[in-house]
Design brief:
- This protein is mostly helical and 176 residues long.
- 78% of the residues lie in helices and 0% in strands.
- Helix 1 packs antiparallel against helix 4 and helix 3 runs antiparallel to helix 4.
Length: 176
């Protein structure tokens, strides 16, 4: 009888240990999943804010100035007072390694968008330098560069619409 009682105690302890371990394992999986989703939500929310701000600034200010090139007789040179010398993407740079938390192909599309934006910033810097020189022989090159800049920025802003929609949907998802 003692052997039976001992066996029951041991089997109860083993069963309790297994159930407890399994419950702990499940709790840990749920915690990790919630943490992953919260991180995904935070990354998406931060990028939505930065992307919206960049798009609004470029659309409301920079593209408007590029549209006016050649329409005013006061200033024929495409000077637009945008030097592109600051870091306009601090959130993306700080969260760059975390965009992998977002579902595919969103990280690839974000990297592509921000790379395109970086190219446009380089071109804006070049336009600013040409404008500062204000030499007549640079005018044709600057006007050509301004046309390319405008068309690529318009395309980039359109692509940004889709990215914002997809990022916002990720920012809204925070369920198990």
């Amino acid at each position: 009888m003692t052997d039976d009682a001992l066996w029951l105690q041991m089997s109860g302890a083993i069963a309790g240990g297994l159930v407890g371990s399994f419950a702990g394992f499940l709790a840990n999986i749920i915690r990790v999943r919630l943490e992953f989703r919260r991180h995904r939500h935070s990354v998406a929310s931060a990028l939505v804010g930065e992307l919206q701000a960049l798009r609004e600034h470029v659309s409301a200010h920079y593209l408007v100035r590029l549209d006016r090139i050649g329409t005013t007789s006061v200033q024929p040179f495409p000077y637009h007072r945008f030097r592109a010398e600051r870091d306009y993407m601090p959130i993306f740079r700080s969260l760059g390694q975390s965009i992998g938390y977002l579902p595919s192909p969103l990280p690839r599309d974000l990297a592509f968008w921000y790379t395109g934006f970086s190219v446009c910033l380089e071109r804006a810097h070049e336009l600013n330098e040409l404008a500062r020189q204000n030499e007549p022989d640079c005018l044709e090159a600057a006007l050509e560069l301004a046309v390319v800049q405008r068309s690529e920025l318009v395309e980039l802003m359109d692509t940004g619409d889709d990215l914002l929609r997809r990022l916002a949907s990720q920012a809204d998802k925070l369920t198990i």
